[in-house]
Amino acid sequence: MITVAVTGGIGSGKSTVSTVLREHGAVVVDSDQLAREVVAPGSPGLAAIAQAFGPAMLTADGALDRAALAAVVFADPAARRQLEQITHPRVRGRFEQIRAAAPAEAIVVNDIPLLTTLAQAASFHLVIGVRAEAEIRVERLIGRGLTEADARARIAAQLSDEQRAPLCDVMLANHGPRTELAGAVDGLWTQRLIPFESNVRAGRRAERGAPRLVAPRASWADDARRLAARISAAAGGARVDHIGSTAIPGLPAKDVLDLQLTVDSLDQADALAPALAAAGFPAVPGIRADTPHPESADPAGWVKRYHANADPGQSLNLHVRVRDWPNWRCALLLRDWLIADPAAIAEYRALKQGLARRFAGDPDADRYAQAKEPWLADAYGRAQQWATSTGWRPAETGTVGPSA
Question: Is the Cα torsion angle 218, 219, 220, 224 positive or negative in sign?
Fold first, then answer.
């Protein structure tokens, strides 16, 4: 089973996306409907709202006065956050009940307009965002009976598409006819969601093509932060760092994110494997260590566990390494040294571009990786010298999660 969030601003078209997914067989849960359930007359949620905002939020027959509440929360961000603290945990609890009752092979979709934080995004296997230009959304909302002023106020009270994008694995544009959006969802279902669910259920990594160097992408940092949050959540809040070439601004790289999960021991790494697999990051058998570098050549310090992404839409290497071991330190040191040394970046760029041409079309990515090892071994020594001269130490915190 995988869980998918569909999110977007009011009038963006997220309901259309959810409808098409339901037609394909997804179990779709409407968060707006759940939100109504958790504040129904006589519910603990409604009692909490009345206590927080006063009895004026109730109608004469004891139901929620939605117009009165909307007038308060849409005009006051603090009040809106207070309301969300009441309703969001209850809505999430109901979603979990429905998810638990779904078939084991289900794709469970949560239509959730108010997905606003990285922690919320991390609780799903995939987040699909829907965007549309503000004027198009205003026109749609007026067609539903809202005044123009009310429509613009509601849009302004929510995240913008630019703020929402880092929380989303996929952003679908909905500027044209419904058929265009439906077609994009059809492709997403067959090419990504179905194989993703199958891979998670089988504990299998997604297939990858031959290594291909691409220009630096501005999205890599946000993508890494989002996936790191997902991994950290599965690992109980452990530290996760963005490492490797995609963590170095301006450096071409394969479109494969490298993340490092910090653990206290290999026993802990093995204990976390089932939770990581369930979250979409299955272990890859046969890869149990990194190549030792001369300055710390004891192989015992280079042992690790390795996971990858079950999502065919985003390749990921997840290196699970023990805190303060040489391979853990090396990953952080090489990243920070390269960021600090433009000449080293230029040198590494030239190497990667040459190897990309040499291994173009080779389906075995390991050969590309192994061909870099002589340069990396030398670079590690240079990075060690830099660390000594600058007093470098690993940062106390990672990309996501506390210092482990």
Answer: positive
Task: Spell out the per-residue pLDDT of the chain, length 404, in tens.
Answer: 899 999 999 999 999 999 999 999 999 998 888 989 999 999 999 999 999 999 999 999 999 999 999 889 888 889 988 998 999 899 889 888 998 999 989 999 999 887 899 999 999 999 999 999 999 999 999 999 999 999 998 899 888 999 999 999 999 999 988 999 999 999 999 999 999 999 999 999 999 877 688 999 999 999 999 999 999 999 999 999 999 999 999 999 989 999 999 999 999 999 999 999 999 999 999 999 998 887 777 899 999 999 999 999 999 999 999 999 999 999 999 999 999 999 999 999 999 888 888 888 777 767 887 888 888 888 999 999 999 999 999 999 999 877 53
Domain extents in the chain: 2-202, 213-390
Under 8 Å between Cβ of 327 and 340: no
Cα-based distances in Å from 100 to 3, 27, 123:
11, 12, 14
How far apart, in whole angstroms, are the C-alpha atoms of residue 228 and residue 377?
27
- Topology, domain 2-202: Rossmann fold (3.40.50)
Structure tokens at 377: 């071994």
Fold of 213-390: Beta Polymerase; domain 2 (3.30.460)
The binding site consists of 11-16
Binding-site positions for ATP: 11-16
State the sign of the Cα–Cα–Cα–Cα dihedral 39, 41, 43, 47.
positive
Question: In terms of DSSP H, where are the helices of 54-132?
Answer: 66-73, 77-101, 118-122
For the entire predicted model, the pTM comes to: 0.88
Q: How far apart are CA 153 and CA 74, in angstroms?
A: 7
